[in-house]
User: Which sequence fits this backbone?
């Protein structure tokens, strides 16, 4: 059994009187392809924000690669090897596509610009964005923006990549494009957590899936077993 | 390299002008222009590069001025010491305000800087040693050779300070710090997720900005031979330091310089042709106009030219 | 320092009245900044504009409070125009809205202040009314009538606005737009029109607040700077978006200032609001009652 890369134990998060996460626990092995699903408002992004450090969990532990993360600011977690893309892309709009990738390569990997540029071009080539390297965010299409999010996360040379609804709103072939990229990244050794609503993508991609509803985990298992699960069906289709 | 050559030329030119027989008034006016160049450049390091708007320029400027007064009155300290002390106090204030509010959204930092103006002003009003509300007269030291007057020396000092401030801004802008600040300005959350230590960088920018403003304030009491709270902490410095970069352009160190030159020139023209009160109104109107219509400032028009030449 | 319970009680009494007054002048900001997230640092300046407008209208013989009420619809329209302008220029374009929006309102505040100086000069202005100048005797204490008037108007304003926001459709839509614009759009409500309306209300309320300001004491153009501290202190201390919290926070500020005024003198009182604001920002930025 591969050792767990990420271990979330008993994590809870409240916003005033509202409980966003309640006693959430899961373990992800190194190299795994992990899917996180759940209806809107179930707490998926909150959980990701707690893991990446944007939010502070009120209870529980998050251990990454043997190191307890509680209290560490996001930038330190990125330096430890956790990278994430944002649901609504947040490119650095005053910079070109290439320069966007130079930020993580300088701040996480501590590369000089010349090295960073070489790495960036390689990443962009792998995503099919190489010709757009000199363009700015406002000149990119939706799917290109999503790829930029992933490319920028990759420039940080992470061990764990969290993809937050990277495929939302994309067409069928665009979904396939992004999925192919994620498969390729995983083949090179990167553990990937995928949050998605597009069921066929999650099912094709994940080795294991966890379903959240109203802040609690209601089901965990292989894609096939999840789809059959009555609780999951209820959560998505309503009681 | 080109930059340093230009800087040296400017410094030498300033010396030359100071030693020439030009009318004394030129130095009085130029001192003010140069002060605003430093203030605008300092403001832009935090406001333009990082996107954190500072309304409280007078607080840092005034802290520098009063630090200079205290040192002068207590120890008879020379100008250079006053300036470094002013910078130190300004930087310290920047650190304090930054630690308190840079974790929060930009508007809270902005409001906190207004608070600091008030608090500093209230403290100075209640402090007898520096003259309280009525202020203090100061006796200038003898003019140092080779300068014919103290004002000329102040002019050269300010010119050198302006060059230094611009050099600092330029370094920050072109270094990895600058890229991090820009990332913060574009999307702070994405910057943090990309490994940028946002709080630390913001603090650095805040301290540097505050220190430069404090340094700019230090020569002011000697310039006026007088100090009092109301005019030292005047909101005119707040709007001027903010308007100059907004008008000139916030992404490049040239912006604040151009903006300051333009603004002070326009103000002088308006004061002479229309009235003194209107000139302050003009600054406000120009600020609003540029912010709404020309967000990239004057430099925005020359953006392409700049991109080609700064590589 | 001469301390006596009599003095303390008087300070407390005055502080409560002052606090309610501060709450009333901050309510507009609670809506525009607390709920709508508009960085409206020009709020106190607009209020001072309201004071001077009241002064002008009252000089025709109208009671100041009535003048304030009459000015409310005018300022309501002004608010809609300002918001529309702000939205078209900044919010719509997203990205750089933060810095430029702030600079914009700062510029507006500055223009208003300087404009007032140009038109009215730097001297203080006051208004006259039956209730200004005399006091109510309550046992050993004398309470100025004008403070009672401000107190009364403040309470009415706060409760009226709180009721409006919770009972009427538009009011609830305003609260909703603060939380979930997308959902509102799905319900067929145009968020921009709601925000515009809300900002108009906030500005209209500022007119009345300005009237109260000039009733409570003399006004000069620079007084808006002092009120930046007071209004933001109240709004932040209350917690963004909390109307009743505004009342509580106002009381805390009013009482603190009153005590400082009583025991340390007038030269320190203005710093209380700013000092309290910095403390709150440092320790508990989400305020006491926030959403």
Assistant:
């Amino acid at each position: 059994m591969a050792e767990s890369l990420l271990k979330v134990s008993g994590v809870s998060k409240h916003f005033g009187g509202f409980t966003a996460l309640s006693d959430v626990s899961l373990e992800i092995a190194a190299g795994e392809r992990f899917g996180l699903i759940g209806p809107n408002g179930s707490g998926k992004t909150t959980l990701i924000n707690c893991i990446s450090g944007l939010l502070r969990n009120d209870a529980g532990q998050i251990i990454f690669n043997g190191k307890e993360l509680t209290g560490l600011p996001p930038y330190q977690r990125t330096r430890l090897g956790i990278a994430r893309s944002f649901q609504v892309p947040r490119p650095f709009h005053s910079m070109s596509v290439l320069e966007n990738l130079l930020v993580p390569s300088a701040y996480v990997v501590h590369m000089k610009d010349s090295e960073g540029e070489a790495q960036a071009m390689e990443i962009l080539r792998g995503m099919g964005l190489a010709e757009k390297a000199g363009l700015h965010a406002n000149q990119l299409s939706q799917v290109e923006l999503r790829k930029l999010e992933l490319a920028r996360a990759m420039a940080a040379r992470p061990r764990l990549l969290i993809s937050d609804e990277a495929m939302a709103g994309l067409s069928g072939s665009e979904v396939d494009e992004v999925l192919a990229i994620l498969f390729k990244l995983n083949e090179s050794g990167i553990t990937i957590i995928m949050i998605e609503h597009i069921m066929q993508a999650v099912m094709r991609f994940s080795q294991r899936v966890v379903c959240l509803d109203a802040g609690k985990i209601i089901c965990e298992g292989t894609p096939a077993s999840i789809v059959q699960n009555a609780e999951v069906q209820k959560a998505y289709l309503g009681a | 390299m080109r930059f340093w050559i230009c800087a040296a030329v400017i410094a030498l030119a300033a010396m030359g002008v100071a030693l020439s027989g030009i009318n004394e008034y030129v130095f009085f006016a130029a001192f003010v222009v140069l002060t605003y160049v430093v203030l605008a450049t300092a403001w832009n390091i935090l406001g333009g590069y990082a996107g954190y708007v500072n309304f409280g320029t007078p607080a840092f400027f005034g802290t520098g001025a009063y630090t200079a007064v205290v040192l002068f009155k207590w120890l008879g300290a020379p100008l250079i010491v006053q300036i470094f002390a002013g910078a130190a106090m300004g930087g310290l204030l920047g650190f304090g305000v930054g630690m308190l509010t840079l974790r929060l959204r930009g508007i809270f930092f902005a409001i906190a800087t207004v608070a600091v103006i008030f608090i500093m002003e209230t403290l100075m009003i209640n402090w007898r040693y520096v003259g309280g509300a009525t202020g203090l007269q100061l006796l200038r030291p003898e003019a140092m050779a080779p300068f014919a007057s103290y004002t000329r020396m102040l002019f050269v000092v300010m010119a050198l300070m302006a060059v230094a401030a611009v050099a600092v801004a330029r370094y920050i802008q072109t270094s990895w710090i600058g890229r991090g600040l820009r990332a913060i300005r574009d999307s702070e959350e994405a910057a943090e997720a990309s490994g940028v230590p946002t709080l630390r960088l913001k603090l650095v920018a805040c301290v540097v900005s505050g220190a430069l403003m404090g340094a700019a304030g230090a020569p002011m009491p000697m310039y006026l031979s007088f100090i009092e709270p109301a005019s030292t902490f005047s909101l005119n410095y707040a709007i001027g330091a903010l308007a100059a970069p907004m008008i000139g352009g916030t992404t490049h160190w040239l912006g604040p310089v151009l903006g300051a030159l333009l603004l002070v020139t326009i103000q002088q023209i308006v004061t002479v042709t229309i009235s003194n009160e209107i000139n302050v109104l003009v600054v406000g109107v120009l600020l609003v106009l540029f912010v709404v219509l020309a967000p990239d400032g004057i430099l925005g028009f020359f953006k392409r030219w700049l991109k080609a030449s700064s590589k | 320092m001469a301390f006596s319970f009599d003095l303390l009680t008087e300070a407390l009494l005055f502080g409560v009245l002052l606090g309610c007054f501060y709450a009333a002048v901050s309510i507009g900001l609670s809506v525009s900044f607390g709920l709508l997230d508009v960085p409206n640092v020009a709020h106190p300046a607009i209020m001072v504009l309201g004071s001077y407008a009241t002064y002008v209208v009252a000089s025709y013989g109208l009671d100041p409070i009535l003048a304030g009420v009459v000015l409310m619809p005018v300022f309501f329209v002004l608010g809609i125009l300002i918001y529309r302008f702000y939205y078209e220029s900044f919010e719509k374009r997203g990205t750089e809205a933060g810095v430029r929006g702030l600079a914009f309102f700062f510029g507006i505040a500055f223009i208003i202040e300087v404009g007032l100086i140009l038109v009215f000069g730097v001297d203080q202005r006051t208004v006259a009314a039956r209730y200004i100048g005399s006091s109510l005797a309550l046992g050993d204490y004398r309470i100025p009538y004008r403070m009672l008037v401000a107190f009364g108007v403040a309470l009415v304003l706060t409760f009226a606005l709180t009721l409006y926001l919770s009972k009427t459709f538009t009011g609830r839509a305003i609260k909703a737009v603060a939380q979930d614009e997308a959902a509102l759009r799905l319900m067929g409500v145009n968020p921009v029109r709601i925000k515009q309306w809300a900002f108009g209300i906030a500005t209209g309320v500022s007119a009345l607040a300005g009237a109260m300001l000039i009733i409570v004491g003399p006004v000069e153009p620079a007084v808006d700077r002092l009120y930046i501290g007071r209004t933001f202190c109240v709004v932040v201390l209350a917690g963004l978006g909390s109307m009743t919290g505004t009342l509580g926070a106002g009381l805390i500020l009013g009482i603190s200032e009153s005590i400082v005024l009583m025991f340390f003198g007038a030269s320190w009182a203005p710093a209380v609001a700013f000092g309290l604001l910095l403390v709150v920002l440092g320790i508990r930025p989400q305020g006491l009652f926030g959403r």
